[in-house]
Amino acid sequence: MSVLPSESKPFPHRHLLGIEGLFPIEISHLLDRAEAYVEQNRQADKKKSLLGGRTVINLFFEASTRTRTSFELAGKRLGADVINMSVATSSIKKGETLIDTAMTLNAMHPDVLVVRHSESGAVRLLSEKVNCALLNGGDGSHEHPTQALLDALTIRRRKGRLDNLVVAICGDILHSRVARSNIHLLNIMGAQVRLIGPKTLIPGGAAALGATVHHDMKEGLSDCDIVMMLRLQTERMHRNYFPSVREYFRFFGLTYDKLASAKPDALIMHPGPMNRGVEIDSEVADDIGRSAIRQQVEMGVAVRMACLEAVTGNLPEISGEVV
Amino acid sequence: MGTWHDIPLGKTAYVNARLVDPATGLDEPGALLTDGETIVDFGPGLFADGVPDGIEAVDCNGRCLAPGLVDIRVQLREPGEEHKGTMATAGRAATAGGVTTMVCLPNTNPPIDDVSVLEFVARRARKLGLTKVYAYGAATKRAEGNELAEMGTLAEAGAVAFTDGDQAVANAQVMRRALTYAATFDLLMVQHPEEPALSGCGVMNGGEMATRLGLTGIPRQAEVIMVERDVRLVEMTGARLHFAHLSTREAVEAVATAKARGLPITCDTAPPYFALNEGAIGSYRTFAKLSPPLRTEDDRRAVIEGLKSGVIDCIASDHLPQDEDAKRLPFAQAAFGGIGLETLLAVTLELFHNGHLSLNGALRLITEAPANLMGLPAGRLKKGGAADLCLFDPDRGWKVDADRMRSKSKNTPFDGHLVQGLVLRTVVDGRAVFDQTGKDA
Fold this sequence. Notes:
The complex is a heterodimer. By secondary structure, chain A is α/β, with parallel strands linked by helices. Helix content of chain A is 35%, strand content 14%. In chain A, the strands form 2 sheets. A 5-stranded parallel β-sheet of chain A has the order 7-6-5-8-9. In chain B, strands 1, 2, 3, 4, 5, 17, 18 and 19 form an 8-stranded mixed β-sheet that branches. A 4-stranded parallel β-sheet of chain B has the order 11-14-15-16, sandwiched between helices. In chain B, helix 4 packs across helix 7, helix 7 runs parallel beside helix 8 and helix 8 packs parallel to helix 10. Chain B is globular, with a radius of gyration of 21 Å. The two termini of chain B are 39 Å apart. Chains A and B meet through helix 8 of A and helix 3 and helix 4 of B.
């Protein structure tokens, strides 16, 4: 159950587990706060003491460089103590269960856990066990809320709005948590979402989530404002989602030719890391006028600062004894 | 390079013909005019006052002038097995059979799972200038049933549909993905409906006769199980699927049910399955060893009923050349398959002569129906369309003689059969590529 937003608490949630179920005003609040941090991050002195004394643990069960670094910087710039734990060095490798690891960390009184896990629902499971705030850094094919928020901030800054935009999300929708969070966010904010990809990579019931489905790039991109490319995991090829990288690129790789059917000022986005020549042509990816890919990374830190601020604002002053 | 078919063509008038066109139901006396490679005009009143000078006239003697036949299931054996057949020998067999358009299976060596092989086949066929050749692309790499082939790229290069040829895509997950991927581009998939785990090392239809002969049977259920599985996968994926050469009553019924439910499913059968039954094996005749195997008399009747009711959409010859060494073996060791291009018309016309279908009704199954199914610009008389024609005598009887087949391999299951319906002349793009009008008495 979502808690209705109130005047005093524009983001009343203990955790940020996903975008689904958030209210437009909550999303706008996070984006507004992030906007302020964008400016702060461009100053020589980037540090605030808002989270002074707070502890943030980045608990990453899945490899990540940019998201983990982004969260780490966000925490540090707000003055928190930030610890990174990655699976390679943790006791998970020694056979500890997910919940035991979480309970162990919980006993050390962290204020925020940022969790990434390869299984959908793993972050939700942890949220039921810990006393601190939890930020979902990406769970399986389920959600990646901070990515959707940083995408939204990027779009809002470039286009001035989110509503009434046509956004095409292209590629491996089936396995993508980025796509799911974006579909939810864009629908909540009044944008029109299109999904483009081979039928093998479009999940069943995609239309019910609030999107139209296309299997032809030119058709799907026609007159759209935003083109969001997704990373294609080439190992999917051997599980028969597509026959070869060259065929994938031929039909679903973003090239100037296909982009021509989008609006002339359509913005190109990619959550990274990119596979050049697989889902996106190098030239298009590096087009300074149209590609927002670098800007997305900048927005990432600001959005994560806003999220850390929002969830810590809802923590009790004293967390009490661990049981 | 100058070849005979580069010589410019003039106008040809086919007069005194019985014009037959299943696409429109036309069946009346008349004439047809071609100019170069196209049909210019045809109809009952044409050349009523004689053929003007400068136009070559062909007297059809009242014989049937119909669209050239369309055969959607042929093995050319080239590249890779030229000792069994080549594009040239298949082309000559096809033209002798009145076939002006054929679609070849991808199980060549190398298989047609790559644009370069597809283009090789198209280039060779163009150069020969005989029957027009279209090709299926392999549904999976090397037609092995494991990994998807580049269907999108192959379709852009001209592959008309996708199949692993004489092998079923056995793995349900691979078939699911192949159908789903094909649906991305609205491509047609074609399945050889036989569950290989059940057909196993069987060599003929399972049942009493196999028991008497001491041969391992292929259970009839192997066919319907695959049909029913794939019907569910079509329902799941929304893809278009065509089943090749149905041979059992149960499979025909399963397709009828699927069609009644509105699913995008079609099917064909081959002449042996409505003209022969397992009795044709007699005492171990390997020319009657086919895949799927010849079934029972009840199945044969069910296939005819399917053709009459429209459950079975069309007929394909299933032309599969095997050299003598592959057939002159103990039955179990002999290869599967029979040639069929040269007997396609005559055996199909049995449906007409036996009163099951009208002449146009029978002819439609080997002209307009398969052409429409594969989206080919063929199978009908059309002003401005390609002058692909078949002149035949529907009543003329002849005896099928394996030794006199034009196909390089002679393995016809109809060897020795008396049939009715003789091809007199075959015209491809306005040129007579086969002509035995001299034999017309």
